[in-house]
Specification:
Layout lengths: L35 E8 L4 H4 L4 E6 L12 H4 L5 H7 L3 E2 L2 H13 L5 E4 L5 H13 L6 E5 L5 H7 L5 E4 L6 H8 L4 H15 L6 E5 L5 H14 L5 E5 L21 H13 L5 E3 L23 E6 L3
Parallel strand pairs: 2-4, 4-5, 5-6, 7-8, 8-9
Antiparallel strand pairs: 1-2, 1-3, 1-10
Helix pairs in contact: 4-5, 9-10
């Protein structure tokens, strides 16, 4: 089925820009109706069950419907920029349905444990079309949806039946923080509704809610953990991340925290897991460094220890 008409008067995400992306206009995400990709490879930096022996077959989509001031993928997301400026800044290349299919099949042939679509919320119609074509051509490994959580249930319905595991962020439940750091004051409501939708449509072990601890903003993390305990403990797994880094180029504005998470903050959050009775999931070790940050201007965008490149937009 052709869903391309959904790019007209676009309301695919909670921003509801209502621009005609099919005619070439750019929404907040910086993208038209063309599906643009930046990188695909075997990634070994995800949660252990997703890596297996072959690595996760990550497919990084260009553009983004958020505006995180400390985005680690700022080169392909546009950082805090919006609209036309973001479109000019984002690295990536438009791919056809056939090329998307070929990328997925090559990842599968090279031993990928899954196809991991990263930040594709603004490109759902094209991705669904590509996944349909890939399945027809022989794709049989699981498909993961790796997103910011800033999604609408109506658009998620298009993904139903195509996604095996959802991996949404729950960045914050503080609307002021969401406005300051993510350029989306309605993020808390939108993300919590999207996650509840995901939990209704997949078993608990197939919804992994990720949360990045922000240095200096532990109360935001505490609120997220409380929400998880009250709403998602029996319907999802928690993945707690400590990898915040101030080194991202997109953080030059100094709007985000300018230091790494410290040991005291990390241990405080670990104590809260016990307080809230959160036992199932993943907890990243305290990580203070920037060697893992990607550089999408290089064909080997990640370190060789972390990833093996299968496709790059400059190929």
């Amino acid at each position: 089925m052709d869903f391309s008409g959904l790019y007209q008067d676009c309301r695919l995400c909670p921003r509801a820009c209502r621009v005609d992306r099919l005619a070439g206009s750019n929404g907040f995400c910086g993208e038209s109706a063309a599906l643009r990709l930046a990188f695909a490879g075997l990634h070994r930096g995800e949660e252990p069950p997703l890596i297996g022996k072959g690595g996760s077959g990550t497919v990084f989509v260009s553009g983004c419907n958020l505006g995180c001031v400390f985005c680690q993928n700022w080169q392909i997301s546009g950082g805090g920029d919006t609209g036309r400026r973001r479109a000019q800044r984002c690295l990536g290349r438009a791919v056809s349905t056939d090329e998307f299919t070929a990328i997925c099949l090559e990842l599968q042939n090279r031993g990928a444990e899954n196809i991991n679509i990263v930040t594709g919320s603004h490109a759902v119609p094209a991705i669904v079309q590509g996944l349909n074509a890939a399945a027809t051509a022989g794709l049989h490994i699981p498909v993961l949806w790796n997103s910011s959580g800033y999604e609408s249930p109506e658009t998620l319905e298009l993904l139903n039946g195509h996604i095996d595991t959802y991996m949404p962020d729950l960045k914050t439940l503080d609307s002021n923080l969401a406005a300051q750091f993510f350029n989306a004051p309605d993020y808390p409501q939108a993300a919590s509704q999207a996650i509840l939708w995901m939990m209704r449509h997949r078993p608990p072990c197939h919804v992994i809610i990720r949360h990045l601890i922000l240095p200096g903003y532990l109360e935001s993390t505490r609120a997220v953990l409380r929400w998880f305990a009250d709403n998602a403990r029996d319907g999802a797994l928690l993945s707690l991340m400590s990898q915040y880094t101030p080194a991202a180029e997109s953080n030059k504005s100094k709007d985000g925290p300018q230091r790494f998470l410290n040991k005291r903050e990390y241990e405080t959050v670990i104590g809260w897991l016990e307080e809230f009775g959160i036992e199932d999931g993943f907890c990243q070790e305290l990580l203070t460094g920037s060697d893992w940050l990607p550089d999408f201007n290089r064909r080997n965008s990640f370190s060789s220890d972390l990833s093996t490149t299968i496709w790059h937009f400059m190929d």
